[in-house]
């Protein structure tokens, strides 16, 4: 009578154990690589955010402060005189010739 083997042979067990060990180590390597990639990506994002923040601070520091109220423009005496002459001309007090002569005199022509 022939004997029947029960279960895998010693070589079969070694092959299964070796395969399991290989697959387990590759899986661990992939997990470690994925974690390293994620850390590198997070570090790169943090560096980019720091650069953006630094640029925003530089722009804020370089921007001139807005005046509280707009300053009144300095009034030019010649312009004020020309405006008066134009009002007098429009009101009919000065004729065209008088307005032209007064304007030439105010402009120094």
Report the sheet-strand fraction: under 5%
Distance between the termini: 139 Å
Radius of gyration: 46 Å
How much helix is in the residues? over 70%
Give the helices and strands as they follow along the chain: HHH
User: Number of DSSP helices?
Assistant: 3
Count of the separate structural domains: 2
Structure commentary:
The structure is a single chain. With 109 residues, the chain is mainly α. The protein has 2 domains: 10-64; 73-109, no CATH class. The protein has 3 helices and no strands. Helix 2 (77-90) packs antiparallel against helix 3 (96-107). The longest helix has 53 residues, at 10-62. The protein is rod-shaped and about 140 Å long.
Features:
109 residues, mainly alpha, 3 helices, 72% helix, 0% strand, rod-shaped
How would you concisely characterize the structure shown here?
The protein is mainly alpha-helical and 109 residues long.
Give the secondary structure arrangement, pairings included.
Layout: H1 10-62, H2 77-90, H3 96-107
Helix pairs in contact: 2-3
